[in-house]
Design brief:
mainly alpha, Rossmann fold, 5 strands, about 65% helix
Length: about 625
């Protein structure tokens, strides 16, 4: 401690006591005693602090004072509540209730640092106060301190095991950490304690959606809406799940219903725009984004989405707006990332490729940081795939396609290689339903290809049956159903061994074009961390290429390779060969995929609404001076 006269040190300690800063006071008294062991005033004060019982320490204000504060809280007078509570804690420095109230009001006003201090003080005064621990967890989560938040929620549950809100909040924090299975368990626990807990139903639905279990999510959202029919959050969650299932008309209905209830709900306007864009209604989508921005002008994600539908000219005021928000010190990292991608699009449109590339570099670096991606994790994944496949190759299972089950068509390869176009071509055929990018394979087979689940005959059979059951529900009665999740190339061994009737279409494209297209694209999914660094995307491409070579050796003649560039050069010839390979009769509609009315929720939703055109694989060359030698190895 800084050496002060003893009297000054003790006065300062007493001031800390008066403010309720007991730990600071205790430290000063201890320092005084270390320097002057015989000082009776410091010894007596320290004994007073350490010796008082919790009942004596936690002195609360009169009940009428607390009632007045509760009245302010109920009336939503948050500023007045914060001011009154801040004054009262000076007089009742050991009041647990007052410190908790100060934390609540400060959190509502956005003063998270004050809120954290207040909840910590309440918890120090009464370590068994579960509500303060739960509230502290919420503030820590808002501050981005997720690990600490998890610990606070767990402590609250230790104190009160049947605390439904704490279970729900713990689920939220675990979801932030990517622990989706445990998060779902916590939501279910909250619902077992409080079956009409609407937010927990919605949160569970959100987790199910992330896990690729959109049908279960739909049921969960509908249950929330039966409890609370006007719950806008549930309508948004339901709309998103329906959109994932390709039921875009129903999704749009949900968003419109949400907007009837809350016309100024910016998120609902944005979700409506996304659904309209998936349906090819780009003018309507742009109008929805504009309505969202009229409500929330700094809505960065919406600005990025709108940039994809906008052709900018030099001097456009929209570019100035994007730059102003980008440079604002108050803009979050996530929002700045969205703005970087929007600015890159704007400056590409104006022909200023140097500035466009600069914003792309910054946006990608921010996104990579947010995802905490490291290419070594994918090296481990690819090594595990080969090891697990070696083990699975010794297992023999016999499986025929069950009666009534559709034939799966896997359209796979690197993202941005042309898989969306190929699915649009195939789903133009009357016998094929395009199911889009399903998460089913990852959910059911992820542990198998990672070696976490033993490749026994039973487990492999269960996987195949589970996949067929899900795509049968998605097939809309068609003979074939396509699944175009590009990363399914990692599962080719599992597909070949468990779904012998499945068709596997590997779409290839100019390697440099693929790498560049990935780098310039913002992906909503968290599973493409490699895309946000020029060197990472090139290295991942080599991993992909090596694995495809491995499959060609282990499973010869099992995969049909379709060259995207050849398809654009001679569309009819390549399309006819593809249709014949699948054993389908020819239909002329397959030559007009741009007329296919199905909804498409991928980064290619605009391109596939155009007639097939040549030359897209050369677009990366405009940026070749900035890319340097990053793609030389591919």
């Amino acid at each position: 401690m800084t050496r002060l006269p003893v009297n000054d040190a003790i006065s300062r300690a007493r001031a800390h006591e008066h403010k309720g800063e007991i730990d600071a006071a205790r430290d000063i008294y201890k320092d005084v005693l270390q320097a002057f062991p015989g000082n009776w005033r410091a010894r007596q004060a320290l004994a007073r602090i350490d010796g008082q019982s919790r009942r004596q320490v936690n002195q609360e204000p009169p009940q009428e004072v607390l009632d007045a504060l509760l009245d302010l809280y109920r009336k939503g007078k948050t500023i007045a509540l914060a001011e009154q509570t801040r004054k009262l804690v000076r007089r009742f420095a050991t009041s647990v209730v007052l410190w908790n109230m100060l934390g609540i009001s400060s959190a509502q006003l956005g003063d998270l640092a004050i809120a954290e201090t207040a909840f910590r003080r309440a918890s120090e005064l009464n370590p068994d106060y579960a509500e303060a621990q739960n509230n502290l967890g919420n503030v820590l989560r808002d501050e981005g301190k997720i690990t600490d938040a998890v610990a606070s929620f767990r402590r609250a549950i230790e104190l009160v095991p049947n605390y439904a809100e704490a279970h729900n909040n713990l689920g939220n924090a675990l979801a932030d950490q990517g622990e989706l299975d445990e998060a779902a368990e916590r939501y279910r626990r909250a619902l077992s304690l409080k079956p009409d807990y609407v937010i927990a139903h919605i949160n569970l639905g959100n987790i199910l959606t992330l896990q690729g279990r959109a049908e279960e999510a739909v049921d969960r959202y509908r249950l929330a809406l039966r409890i609370s029919p006007d719950q806008v959050a549930a309508l948004n969650g339901l709309g998103n799940a329906l959109n994932d299932l390709g039921r875009t008309d129903e999704a749009i209905e949900c968003y419109r219903r949400a907007l009837e209830i809350a016309p100024d709900h910016a998120l609902a306007h944005t979700n409506l725009g996304i659904a309209q864009s998936a349906r090819g209604e780009f003018t309507e989508a742009g109008a929805s984004y504009q309505r969202a921005l009229a409500i929330k002008p700094d809505y960065a994600e919406c600005l990025r989405l709108l940039s994809g539908l906008t052709t900018y000219k030099a001097g456009d005021p929209e570019i100035v707006t994007l730059q102003r928000l980008h440079e604002d010190d108050g803009t979050s990292v996530s929002d700045r990332c969205h703005l970087c991608f929007a600015l890159a699009k704007a400056f590409e449109d104006t022909g200023d490729l140097s500035r466009a590339f600069g914003y792309l570099q910054q946006g990608n670096a921010l996104r990579k940081g947010l995802l905490q991606y490291d290419i070594t994790q994918d090296h481990r994944v690819f090594a595990a795939i080969r090891k697990a496949d070696d083990a699975a190759s010794a297992i023999k299972i016999t499986r025929a396609l069950p009666d009534g089950a559709p034939v799966p068509i896997f359209i796979l390869g690197m993202p941005r290689s042309g898989t969306s176009l190929v699915e649009q071509i195939l789903s133009s055929h009357s016998a094929v339903h395009g199911a889009g990018e399903l998460a089913t394979i990852e959910r059911l087979g992820g542990d198998l290809i990672a070696g976490k689940t033993a490749p026994t005959a039973e487990n492999l059979t269960r996987f195949g049956a589970g996949y067929l059951a899900e795509v049968t529900r998605r097939s809309e009665g068609k003979t074939f159903v396509s699944d175009k999740a590009p990363h399914n190339f990692q599962f080719i061994g599992l597909i070949a061994r468990t779904l012998p009737d499945a068709k596997i279409i590997h779409v290839t494209r100019n390697a440099k074009a693929v790498c560049w297209s990935n780098f310039r694209q913002y992906f909503n999914t968290a599973g493409l961390g490699y895309a946000y660094d020029l060197n990472d995307v090139a290295e991942f491409y080599k991993l992909y290429e090596g694995l495809m070579t491995y499959w060609s050796v282990r499973l010869p003649d099992r995969v049909y390779t379709l060259d995207y560039d050849a398809l654009t050069e001679d569309q009819e010839a390549e399309t006819r060969k593809l249709i014949a390979h699948l054993g389908l009769t020819w239909e002329d509609a397959c030559l007009s995929p741009h007329n296919n009315p199905r909804s498409v929720r991928t980064a290619s939703d605009q391109q596939i609404r155009q007639e097939v055109y040549r030359g897209s694989s050369q677009a990366w060359k405009r940026y070749e001076p900035f890319i340097g030698g990053a793609f030389d190895a591919v």
